[in-house]
Design brief:
The chain is α+β, with helices and mostly antiparallel strands. The protein has one domain. It contains three helices and four strands. The strands form two sheets. Strands 1-4 form a two-stranded antiparallel ribbon. Strands 2-3 form a two-stranded antiparallel ribbon.
Length: 95
Amino acid sequence: MGQELTMQEAVVGCGSLAWAFDIGRKEAVREGNGKTAVGVGNEEKEGMRVPKRWDESLIIAKPPAEEIECVVRSEERRIVVEAAYEDSKKLGSTF
């Protein structure tokens, strides 16, 4: 039960971030050109080797250093995020 709850919390948390923000490489988010999409196969994509098989990747063990940028998707979403943050502070929640 604890593992299922943790998994559900992770999905909700990641989904909330994806709903509120455009997240990607700094230049890709700023330009809005879709550079964050990575193809399949064992090939170079924007200076990054994309593994062909699941066991070739070190992404979990050792991710490459990467600068990212989080940009709020809209003013309406900014208001929702700020309100949720203020509510969490009132309840004593920490981020």
